Every structure is written in structure tokens, then in C-alpha cells.
Amino acid sequence: DTEVTQTPKHLVMGMTNKKSLKCEQHMGHRAMYWYKQKAKKPPELMFVYSYEKLSINESVPSRFSPECPNSSLLNLHLHALQPEDSALYLCASSQDLPLGDEQFFGPGTRLTVL
Amino acid sequence: AQRVTQPEKLLSVFKGAPVELKCNYSYSGSPELFWYVQYSRQRLQLLLRHISRESIKGFTADLNKGETSFHLKKPFAQEEDSAMYYCALSTPGGSYIPTFGRGTSLIVHP
Questions:
Q1: 3-class SS at B20?
Q2: Which of chain A's residues have a Cβ under 8 Å away from the Cβ of B43?
Q3: Which of A1, A50, A95, B28 is most buried, taking the most CB atoms under 10 A from its CB?
Q4: Which residues of chain A make contact with B90, given a CB cutoff of 8 A?
Q5: Nearest of A1, A3, A20, A21 to residue A92 by alpha carbon
Q6: What is the 8-class DSSP label of residue A80?
């Protein structure tokens, strides 16, 4: 399996809701990433996990909470989001951080915050 | 700090014309450079990377350390090449986390 999968594909939530995005890969990759992408813009890095430990947090607001339960799974817990958080949320993985390998991206979750 | 510059937000060409998407970077050491492509309604995917030195879908890119550039070229553009193209830079100084350029939207007209 050489794909990164993400669920759900689409998510609509109110500002008081709590929801989670899920990401899964079975390529044995040890680095996993969350990105936020607005239309016609490059992906903006949010978090990086390396060997299931949070390695980088790009000053993301606490209403976004990542979790890496095991080496294949990555979650992003959402709570009290704002309408400006509406975007495509991309998960990616790569073999390992120090190698500077290519990243494999998931299809994304299209999030709309009402 | 490492930076990637893609000067053109939009590049519009006709089918069969040559295309060059520009990418300049700022980094004093030896970087890893990538081109990623995002077709309409498809996931972001790697097109090519400089260390592989291969041609993918007719595209090539050469790292020019003197000019700190990694331009993407194709001699004859096809309509199916229409997509968003991102140049990305990965360096030891940046913990090998890729830095993306702003992207260039390539439109190939029939």
C-alpha cells in the first residue's frame, strides 16, 4: 500500500463543535505531517511527527491538537474553530526526517467552519 | 533562512510550446530540491527531485548552484500538463522540512 489515506473527505462543523481528522499510511514511514492549504496557495506546515513524537509545532493555535497513536496513524483534533480555519487539511508522510525524502500526500480533508 | 521563490503566479502557453517554470532558492549549502504537482481535484504529488536526474512526463529540472535555481522545463507542453506546480527546498538547517514556493499555475491551451 503506497498511499496516504485521509478521512473524512469533507467536514462541516460549527464553531462550538469538536471533531477529528484522521490520516493513515502503511508504508513504514516514520515522519508524518499536517498541512493547511488555502485555495491556490502552497501548503502551510502545521505539525511534524517523527517516530511518533511531536517534532515541530509551527505556532499553531491550541484549537488544533495533533495526536500520533502509532506509527501508521495521525489525528488532528479540532475544537472551537473559527471560520478562517476553513481550508484543505493535508496529511503527508516521508520515510524519515533526516533523509530529506519526498513526501507522500493524502487527498486532504476539505473543512468548512460555519 | 531558506527561501523558495517562484516568480510567476500564472504561466499560460499553447499546446506544443516549450514551457519553463522558474524556481530560485536561497540557501548556502547543498539543498534537496523537488518539484511537486497538483492536478485539479487530485492530491499533491512529487513530480521530480534533483538527485534522481530523471525525466518525468517529459519534464526535466537541473540544479544550478551558481544561479541557485531549479527551473522546470518541458520542450512541448500538453493540455494535461495544466496544473499547479510547487518548487520545494529541503535542507539540514531546516531539519529537512520542505519549504514550498508559492506555486505557479500552468495553463496549456489547445
A1: strand
A2: 90, 105-108
A3: A50
A4: 100
A5: A3
A6: S
Residues A12-22 have pLDDT tens digits of 999 888 999 99
Cβ atoms A36, A57 nearer than 8 A: no
Residue located via cell numbers 504537482: B37
Tell me, what's the pLDDT at A24? Answer: 97
Q: What is the pLDDT tens value at each position of chain B, 110 positions in all?
A: 788 999 999 999 999 999 999 999 998 888 889 999 999 989 999 999 887 778 889 999 988 989 999 999 999 999 999 999 999 998 877 777 788 999 999 999 99
**Taking chain A, what is the end-to-end CA distance rounded to the nearest angstrom?**
35
- Cα dist from B39 to A105, B20, B43, B79, whole Å: 13, 17, 7, 12
Among A72, A60, A2, A3, CA closest to A36: A60
Residue among B74, B79, B85, B95 nearest B19 (CA) = B74
Cα–Cα dist B100/A47, whole Å: 15
